Amino acid sequence: METILSTQNNRVKEWEKLKTKKGRKKTGMYLIEGRHLVSEVLQNDADVVYVVATQDELDEIKFEVPNDLLVVVSDKIADHLSDTVTTQGIFAIVRIPNKERQIQEPASYIEGAWLLLDNIQDPGNIGTMVRTADAAGFEGVVFGKGTADIFNPKIQRAMQGSQFHIRLVLGDLNEWVKSFRKANLPVFGTELNPQAKSYQEIEATNDFALIMGNEGNGMSKELLSQTTANLYIPIKGQAESLNVAVAAGILMFSLKDI
Amino acid sequence: METILSTQNNRVKEWEKLKTKKGRKKTGMYLIEGRHLVSEVLQNDADVVYVVATQDELDEIKFEVPNDLLVVVSDKIADHLSDTVTTQGIFAIVRIPNKERQIQEPASYIEGAWLLLDNIQDPGNIGTMVRTADAAGFEGVVFGKGTADIFNPKIQRAMQGSQFHIRLVLGDLNEWVKSFRKANLPVFGTELNPQAKSYQEIEATNDFALIMGNEGNGMSKELLSQTTANLYIPIKGQAESLNVAVAAGILMFSLKDI
């Protein structure tokens, strides 16, 4: 165990940089925050480099932190590292797994339900969709081109531990769609268009891909043209659309067989 | 039309205060931001006092702003008023309708589906739930005790115009539940508990109440004991729970008849 009290400490400065994509790329590390997430990361097969916490928070938590990982810091340092308004004061610095730093090819044999994210921007939406995919029994989530970075601290926080439960990969969505089609598995696009099929017409199944598109512009035309079916959620009131994470939740729970 | 260029202008200072509950209570006004919302408020039966916009934004918009409401401001003033990282530079100052400042009794004759919010905190979640209730064809949303303020700018923004499509009222949820029960209409509580009924067992219907509870602690025990049935969403993966707005979306679209 060691103690750091100055916000000017070099390591503290390095950790702060992990909030940016550039900083994560340079060091190959990422930062997670909060009691629940740190507890989850320690229970999982992740490469934790440090657990950084205030003494007050250490007195509070109910799980063990290995002594050789522990760095005790001041409240001020915790505030610097934090991405929240009132921090709990506990963080982990974790090495990004090598495979998750690169675009992955879809497996030759695909199983389970997969959520494909096409150019989704909002960290809260992305994290919530990963959490919902976990709850709906999905196998994994593919982060396609233009979708925000898996290791963004806001996304990590919104995932609420689901990042340690299901598979998250960077991927070329065109390749993933091709693999599903080749395996004769359905690929559902989502389109804000009553010309598409209502999701209620689709029977629940186990192995499929569901693509969610950009908050403002929807899915790319190229991907839309390669799906088995494009689905929409019938809007009954005057709202123009649904929040993408809410739409994804309705679709995932309706499409995935128990 | 008038023009204000100083952030020290008294009216600008008054408008800034509308971001706080105290400021809204004192003046009886609220502030909304963004092209879409301002366009909606002007089309609706709302008491708009001013439309405040930068000249660049006025050159951009495709809808008419009545000249006697218009105040042109500098980019700097727009930044001061804004609640977003990059503002579009258009706002409306709107009088809070008298009826929405007071707790309302439930109507003696209840119709349609109503979403009841019990002690919900996060503005994004609340706004998203109102937007989803609109899309699902709900009649209105009741803001119960402890739920954040209807006129909070973040909530107003997340509602995306649905505040002008469905009824939003402050209310005592105990009274609302009693009224539904008296009218022999179902009241569905939500409980993170497999002892509850799976939502999939409930047939879709038109007139009912659905109660969503606090993000961390769920619904109040008192309300839970007064419902017709308490529902849960079966979790298939390892996630501990769903985001409350996602859960509300799944339930509303499943419970409400088309």
What does this structure look like?
Two copies of one chain form a homodimer. With 258 residues, chain A is α/β, with parallel strands linked by helices. Chain A folds into two domains: 95 residues, 60s Ribosomal Protein L30, Chain: A; 155 residues, Alpha/beta knot (3-Layer(aba) Sandwich). In chain A, 32% of the residues lie in helices and 20% in strands. Chain A contains ten helices and twelve strands. In chain A, strands 8-7-6-11-9-12-10 form a seven-stranded parallel β-sheet. A five-stranded mixed β-sheet of chain A has the order 1-4-3-5-2. In chain A, helix 6 packs parallel to helix 10. Chain A is elongated, with a radius of gyration of 20 Å. The mean pLDDT of chain A is 93. At the A-B interface, helix 6 and helix 10 of A face helix 6 and helix 10 of B. Chains A, B: It comes from Pediococcus inopinatus. Chains A, B: InterPro entries: Alpha/beta_knot_MTases, MRM3-like_sub_bind, Ribosomal_eL30-like_sf, rRNA_Methyltransferase, SpoU_MeTrfase, SpoU_subst-bd, tRNA_m1G_MTases_N. Chains A, B: GO terms for molecular function: methyltransferase activity. Chains A, B: Pfam families: MRM3-like_sub_bind, SpoU_methylase. Chains A, B: Belongs to the class IV-like SAM-binding methyltransferase superfamily. RNA methyltransferase TrmH family.
